[in-house]
Write a structure and sequence with these properties.
alpha+beta; 434 Repressor (Amino-terminal Domain); Jelly Rolls; 2 domains; seven-stranded antiparallel β-sheet; 5 helices; 7 strands; about 35% strand; globular
Length: about 180
């Protein structure tokens, strides 16, 4: 299994070409401006996780294939041991670890997210479905639309993920679980 996030754009391009789908079609069907999609596929721009799911969906692939290069294998249950999730650094100060990467056909995506307040804040994103965040360690600021919520260890928030949203660490590193249902 190859978890190197730098390989994700290459996997997308390779799968797109194998399936004989144009980059224009992928961009249109995933709701991404063509120029932005081309920057994602070339690796010039980091791909937000919500966009990665839309691209995987359009390619008819599990996002695990794009992240790891392998198919998810488990049908009934998938255990993820401490520290063994598929870890992807999106950009400095923001990385996530997929906790159910090996479960085929999952209806939601549980992620362990690591943030560092010394790094720039991530851009706001939006995607279909709903999202749940539960703070494990540290403090995070969650922006949902124009509202800001300060969450500490043990706090949680559930929101409509169609609204622009983003999380940032407050006063040091933080970890939280996010469950995304598209």
């Amino acid at each position: 299994m190859d978890e190197n996030p730098a390989r994700i754009p290459g996997r997308i391009k390779e799968l797109r070409e194998i399936l004989e789908i144009s980059s224009m079609d992928i961009a249109r069907d995933a709701g991404i401006p063509f120029e932005t999609y081309m920057k994602y596929e070339s690796g010039d721009l980091d791909i937000p996780i919500s966009v990665l799911y839309r691209i995987a969906n359009r390619l008819g692939a599990d996002v695990t294939v794009l992240i790891t290069g392998e198919e998810a294998r488990m049908l009934h249950a998938a255990v993820c041991r401490k520290g063994k999730g598929v870890r992807v650094e999106r950009y400095p100060g923001y990385e996530f670890s997929s906790l159910a990467y090996n479960f085929r056909g999952r209806a939601m995506e549980p992620l362990l997210v690591f943030l560092d307040s010394s790094m720039p804040q991530a851009e706001m994103v939006s995607h279909s479905g709903q999202e749940f965040n539960y703070v494990i360690e540290g403090r995070i600021r969650v922006m949902v639309g124009k509202a800001a919520y300060l969450l500490s260890e043990g706090d949680s928030i559930y929101f409509d993920a169609r609204l622009p949203h983003g999380q940032s660490a407050v006063d040091g590193p933080a970890q939280f679980i996010t469950i995304i249902q598209e």
